[in-house]
């Protein structure tokens, strides 16, 4: 009997933006003549359970997505269904304050944050646009979705002058479609494979790069949206910088780590991390300082990467790295 090929257990695929299922559900309902409403967090602050951009599609007998859970979400789902049952259209915009002592707009939760929730009845004439949105998300497309106080929905490829929620009587809300953050893993070995599996559940657009042609753990990795064999000496041209770019270096050894890191030092990333032991990181840091790299550039590198949970296996290391990526992503910072 032939033995199974290595990594035959991998059956995953590149992830899709979590919003896709919400829009697909809305499209399916409208096509079937079933009333459906959109719940959308247009603004959030503090310890709000639902962050800006969280959304749900709600029909009489089904729903997809989340605006944060708990009693607040339950109340909005019931409100949406009640309005649909009564044939009420249009939209509502309601502020929710998550503090027990709040004088008004109290949500019933006590986590101390605030959020503004939109309830929009999706009319049949929205269907062509919603299909465009779902199609763009399905095929890794980009664009900007805009919603106005008049209930107008539009989709454009041109970046807006001001994204997010612009308050006022004639308020607007604009969000970017697709993945908001991009994660590039430099090095396609066993830890990269384990990290790819976890990252595929975290709403990152994922790229894995390695300089070894024919590397089995790269070839058989089903989770990245892109994977390429590259020359680490030209890595700077492969990875764009920006406030939504996360980069993890975990190559095969010290020499290739150093080559990759030299290409990326001093560039602007949301996160730049390097895997390795304390001893390796100390030696690499000393060598780079001797070469003239500024202390400030080296201090910006997360190294060794990962939260300190005494991880040993590739899967445990991947979990510690993923936790650090989540912490960096959710820390207050400027988004584009």
Explain the overall architecture.
This protein has helices at residues 19-31, 70-85, 127-138, 190-199, 216-219, 254-264, 278-290, 295-299, 314-330, and strands at residues 37-45, 55-59, 62-65, 91-97, 114-121, 144-148, 153-156, 164-166, 172-176, 181-186, 204-210, 226-229, 242-249, 269-274. The protein has 336 residues and is an alpha/beta fold. The protein folds into two domains: 19-176, no CATH class; 181-330, NAD(P)-binding Rossmann-like Domain (Rossmann fold). The strands form three sheets. Strands 3-2-1-5-4 form a five-stranded antiparallel sheet.
Task: Note the main sheet.
Answer: 5 strands, antiparallel
Numbering strands along the chain, what is their spatial order in the largest sheet?
A: 3-2-1-5-4
User: β content, as a range?
Assistant: 15-25%
Shape: elongated
Number of helices: 9
N-C termini distance: 55 Å
Mean pLDDT: 89
Number of strands: 14
Secondary-structure element order, N to C: HEEEHEEHEEEEEHEHEEHEHHH
Name the helicity range.
25-40%
Over all CA atoms, what is the radius of gyration?
23 Å
Number of domains: 2
The SS-based structural class is: alpha/beta
Ranges with pLDDT <50 over ≥5 residues? 1-6
